[in-house]
Design goal:
By secondary structure, the protein is an alpha/beta fold. The protein is built from twelve helices and 18 strands. The chain folds into two domains: 222 residues, FAD/NAD(P)-binding domain; 77 residues, D-Amino Acid Oxidase, Chain A, domain 2, CATH 3.30.9. The structure holds flavin-adenine dinucleotide. The site of flavin-adenine dinucleotide has 42 residues, from helix 1, strand 2, strand 12, strand 15 and strand 16.
């Protein structure tokens, strides 16, 4: 257990929540010379259900706050492969960029080390019970601060204390994470699809893969082998390592993510369905953008850039969830993506921010979209996008 220091009586920035988003926000704020206290109710390294894949944009955003990750920290992957019972389509990242599969606890350990190195005062094992007009209440006394960053995750209390409410309309899914001891058979993140459920596989070690299964509530009692026989054949009865962890996966969106001196980052500020693999990238990019707004003393700037950053991942979440719910639509789309791998790769570039969203129409031009659009018209539309 890490013994936390006594909290100083004041600071520039108080970050509530020491998951990846909170640590990234703390690092970004230190980088512009602000004093930072961060508190988390848990002890590091903190584990959580996660697909454990960092997309290239996540790695770029981390680099900007002084965290350089590469093959020494996990396993590099060069793109995404979609598979269902009959079809397979893959896309590689452009310009030799790569993503990184890294155990959640390892990522947390690295971020915690870096935060310590740059002088973030971290209070581990401290649950924050409230805020008041002067700052954050810790152990019954107020730590005065200029800014409060709410990085306390999906069920954020800071969000509630700030009077900010998310839109909960989107489908609620359950994500389960497991690790298997097996040599990775691919240098792609593989996403196995079936109706109402996906399993995605990220290589995270020389002899270890992470499997995140995301679907409706009933997946909890289901058997991976029955649901995804091809994946099961790769796993070949490999040993399950460590505990299975579960979490809710859901797209949520807030009309505004700042209130007075309070700003939200990471899942506290809205989330995208796990199948996008973009939750961490968004959190790290938000941290950079929040620091720029803090430097300018204007949180509205952060709110505006937060909204811009979320558009593409939300669009992707919506599209991928259409594939989740409709076998015919998914097959049609996968057939097209398999026939046009370059287009799939460019779409992936747009997804990870390497190409502008405005390029989408031109990229998708060769795809026979009429069938897909017709099919999509019959599907219920989700209000939050
Ligand atoms: C199944 C699944 C798979 C996923 N796969 C991927 C993936 O492959 N790639 C990707 O980029 N994203 C993925 N995501 C999304 C990603 O995991 C989240 O976006 C990310 O964890 C958000 O980080 P966070 O720091 O905002 O929240 P969290 O990691 O939830 O951290 C919040 C922290 O706040 C602390 N806290 C809460 N309340 C208090 C309090 N009152 N006082 C003190 N501390 C408090 C908690 O202890 C916790 O440590 C996945 C999500 C799921 C559910």
């Amino acid at each position: 257990m890490v013994i936390s220091p006594l909290a100083p009586s004041e600071t520039d920035v108080f970050v509530i929540g020491g998951g990846p988003a909170g640590l990234a926000a703390a690092l970004a704020a230190r980088q512009i010379g602000l004093d930072v206290i961060l508190a988390d109710r848990a002890q590091p390294p903190i584990d959580k259900a996660c697909g454990e894949g960092l997309m290239p944009d996540a790695l770029d955003a981390l680099r900007r706050i002084g965290v350089n990750l590469g093959s020494g920290n996990g396993v590099c992957f060069r793109g995404i492969r979609f598979l269902d019972e009959k079809l397979e389509a893959e896309a590689t990242f452009s310009n030799h960029s790569f993503g990184l599969g890294i155990r959640r606890t390892e990522l947390h350990r690295i971020l915690v080390e870096r935060a310590k190195d740059v002088g973030v005062v971290a209070l581990w094992g401290k649950k924050i019970e409230g805020i008041d007009t002067a700052g954050v209440v810790v152990d019954g006394r107020t730590v005065r601060c200029r800014w409060i960053v709410g990085a306390d995750g999906f069920h954020s209390n800071v969000r509630r204390w700030a009077g900010l409410a998310p839109n909960w309309n989107a489908a609620r899914r359950i994500g389960l994470r497991q690790h298997f001891r097996v040599r990775p058979w691919t240098d792609f993140v593989e996403v196995y699809w079936r109706k109402d459920c996906q399993a995605y596989v990220t290589p995270v070690g020389v002899d270890e893969v992470c499997v995140a299964t995301i679907g409706r509530e009933d997946i909890r009692g289901s058997d991976l082998v029955d649901m995804f026989p091809v994946l099961a054949s790769h796993l070949g009865g490999a040993e399950l390592i460590g505990p299975t962890r579960g979490a809710i996966s859901k797209s949520t969106r807030l009309p505004i993510v700042v209130a007075g001196r309070i700003a939200l980052v990471g899942d506290a500020s809205g989330s995208v369905d796990a199948v996008t693999g973009e939750g961490l990238a968004l959190a790290f990019r938000q941290a950079n953008s929040l620091a720029a707004a803090l430097a300018a003393g204007d949180l509205r700037r952060y709110d505006a850039s937060h909204r811009r950053m979320g558009r593409m991942p939300r669009l992707m979440a919506r599209t991928l969830l259409l594939f989740d719910g409709n076998d015919r639509l998914r097959r049609m789309a996968f057939r097209n993506l398999a026939a046009h791998p370059r287009i799939f790769s460019r779409l992936l570039d747009v997804h990870v921010g390497a190409l502008r969203r405005s390029a989408l129409t031109a990229i998708a031009q060769p795809l026979p979209r009429a069938d897909i659009e017709q099919e999509a018209r019959h599907l219920p539309q989700n209000g939050i996008f």
